[in-house]
Design a protein that fits this description.
The protein has about 475 residues and is α/β, with parallel strands linked by helices. The chain contains 20 helices and 12 strands. The protein is about 45% helix and about 10% strand. Helix 2 crosses helix 16, helix 4 runs antiparallel to helix 17 and helix 10 packs across helix 12.
C-alpha cells in the first residue's frame, strides 16, 4: 500500500477512535515461476463485500460448535509460534484455551517454539518429521516453494485488508501490521533530568552520551542473546545507509553489480558500532525477555523495539511512564518499519491431507481473527490490526504516537529480511549477517573481513537460490 493510502487510513482510524492497520505491497517480481503479487488493493476491494459473511463466521463459532462438530472424529492439532515474547505467549495461550473450550472435539496443543532461533527451530522440526499442523510462519517463500504450506481458502483471505500472494495463492494470515520500531524510554527519568526527545540523529547520539556520562543507568538495553533482536537495530542502520541509496541492493547483489563490500554496507556496520557503545554491559548474553526488567528497574533509560513491548512494560510496572520517539536517519529522514508483512499463521500441507485436520486448522484461524479473540492478541502486543472486521482496542497514548509517526514517516517499508521477489534473501543469510554483526560489535572481527565473509556466504547461498536466474525457485 502506498504511503498516502496508509496515511489516509490511519488518520481515519484515529478520528474514529479505533486502531486498524493495513499492509503495503509486499513485493512483486516478474520471475515467471515465482509471482509474489502482494497487491493488497485486490483484496481490499473485494473484502468489504465478502467480509460480511466471513465476519459472521468468526462471530458464530460458539453457535457452530453447539450445533454440531466440524470434524468427523476427535482431532488434535499441534501449534508452534515464536514464544520468546511474553505478550505473544500469554495471548496465544488464552486464545488456544478459548478455542479448545469452544470446540470439545478439537484439541490444539501448543508446543514450545524456541523464540530465540525460531527459523532454525522450525527447520529442525521439519527435518525430523515433526513439522507442526499450524504454525507462525516467517520464512514463507522458502516453505511455499518446498510445498510445505497449504493455501488458505478465499473466505479466510477475505478477512484481511491485504495479504501477500504467491502465484495467486495466499498461504499466511498476517498477525498484524509490520512491527514499527522506535525508542521506548523512561519518561520520568527524562523529565527529572531535563532530557528531551531528539529530533535528529546527532541529537540522539548526544542524548545517549549524556545518559552514559551521568553513570546511573545504561542509555540503551539490547537483548542480543536472541539473535532476531539484533535485527531491530541492524535494519535501522541498513535502512539509513543502504536502502536509502539503493532500495534494490539485494537484487543488485544477485546480478553481481554490487556486493557486501559496498561502502554503504560498511557504513551500516559503522553506524551500529556507534550506537552499540551505549548498550548495557553483557548485551550479547541478555535475552529479549529480560529487557523489560532493565527498563522498569531503572537499569536502562531506553530500548529500541516494537510496539509489542508497550503491554509488557505496563504489565511489569503499571506505574511506569513510557515515552516513544523514532530515531531519525543521519540524513534527517524518518524511515520506519511498517505496513503488512509476508508472515503469519499458516497450515501445513501435510496436515491438510487429513480432512478433519484441514477443517479444524482453518476454523482455528477463523476463530483467532474473530474480533473478540483477535483483540486479545492486538492488545497484549500493541499490534495494529489487519482485519476488515477490526476489534475495538483500548490503546495507550504512546501507541497513538507510533500511529502518528507512521503517518508522517518519509519511508514506511518491511524489514530487509521480509521482502520477496528479487530482493528476497537466500535461506539463512539473515542470521549469518546478524552473527557476523555481533562479531564486529564485540571486536573479534573487523568490518572489512566481515564484508568478505558475507560475500563468501552470499556466493554459496546463490548456488542454491537466486530469484533472478530461477535457481531454487520451483
Amino acid at each position: 500500500m502506498k504511503r498516502r493510502t496508509m496515511a489516509a487510513f490511519l488518520a481515519a482510524v484515529l478520528t474514529a477512535g479505533a486502531l486498524a492497520g493495513c499492509g503495503n505491497d509486499a513485493g512483486k517480481t516478474d520471475t515467471p515461476a515465482y509471482n509474489a503479487a502482494g497487491s493488497g488493493a485486490d483484496h481490499a476491494a473485494a473484502a468489504p463485500t465478502e467480509a460480511g459473511d466471513d465476519a459472521g463466521a468468526g462471530a458464530d463459532t460458539d453457535a457452530d460448535a453447539a450445533g454440531g462438530s466440524i470434524v468427523s472424529a476427535p482431532t488434535e492439532l499441534t501449534y508452534i509460534f515464536a514464544d520468546g515474547d511474553e505478550g505473544a505467549k500469554a495471548a496465544m495461550n488464552e486464545i488456544v484455551n478459548k478455542f479448545n473450550e469452544t470446540y470439545p472435539d478439537i484439541t490444539v496443543t501448543i508446543e514450545p517454539g524456541n523464540g530465540g532461533a525460531y527459523s532454525e527451530f522450525i527447520k529442525t522440526k521439519d527435518s525430523v518429521g515433526e513439522f507442526p499442523d499450524v504454525m507462525e510462519m516467517r520464512d514463507t517463500a522458502v516453505y511455499v516453494r518446498a510445498g510445505k504450506l497449504e493455501p488458505l481458502p478465499d473466505d479466510i483471505v477475505a478477512l484481511f485488508k491485504t495479504t501477500t500472494a504467491f502465484d495467486g495463492k495466499v498461504y499466511t494470515a498476517p498477525f498484524a501490521g509490520e512491527n514499527t520500531n522506535g525508542i521506548i524510554y523512561n519518561k520520568t527519568y527524562f523529565d527529572e533530568n531535563g532530557l528531551t526527545e531528539p529530533t535528529t540523529y546527532d541529537e540522539f547520539i548526544e542524548l545517549c552520551q549524556t545518559i552514559q556520562d551521568k553513570g546511573d543507568m545504561a542509555p540503551l538495553v539490547v537483548g542480543g542473546q536472541d539473535i532476531w533482536h539484533m535485527g531491530f537495530w541492524f535494519h535501522k542502520a541498513y535502512n539509513d545507509q543502504v536502502l536509502s541509496q539503493d532500495p534494490d541492493f539485494i537484487e543488485h547483489c544477485y546480478d553481481g553489480s554490487k556486493d557486501f563490500s559496498d561502502e554503504t554496507f560498511k557504513k551500516t556496520f559503522e553506524e551500529m558500532q556507534q550506537i552499540m557503545q551505549y548498550a548495557q554491559d553483557g548485551w550479547s548474553s541478555t535475552p529479549d525477555a529480560q529487557i523489560t526488567t532493565f527498563m522498569v528497574n531503572d537499569m536502562a533509560a531506553m530500548m529500541y523495539s516494537g510496539t509489542h513491548m508497550f503491554s509488557q512494560i505496563a504489565a511489569a510496572d503499571p506505574d511506569f511512564e513510557m515515552g516513544w520517539f523514532p530515531v531519525p536517519s543521519p540524513d534527517g529522514k524518518t524511515r520506519l518499519v511498517g505496513g503488512g508483512g509476508v508472515g503469519g499463521l499458516a497450515i501445513s500441507a501435510e496436515a491438510a491431507k487429513d480432512p478433519d485436520k484441514k477443517a479444524a486448522a482453518e476454523e482455528f484461524i477463523r476463530f483467532f481473527y474473530a474480533p473478540e479473540n483477535y483483540k486479545i492478541y492486538c492488545e497484549k502486543l500493541s499490534a495494529i490490526p489487519v482485519t476488515v472486521d477490526e476489534p475495538e482496542l483500548e490503546a495507550m497514548d504512546v501507541f497513538k504516537e507510533v500511529v502518528e509517526a507512521t503517518n508522517n514517516a518519509d519511508d514506511l517499508a518491511p524489514m530487509w529480511n521480509g521482502r520477496v521477489g528479487n530482493n528476497e534473501l537466500p535461506p539463512d543469510f539473515r542470521n549469518f549477517t546478524y552473527k557476523t554483526l555481533i562479531e564486529v560489535l564485540q571486536g573479534t572481527r573487523d568490518i572489512d573481513s566481515a564484508c568478505e565473509e558475507l560475500n563468501k556466504t552470499w556466493k554459496v547461498g546463490m548456488e542454491s537460490f537466486n530469484p533472478l536466474t530461477g535457481v531454487g525457485i520451483e
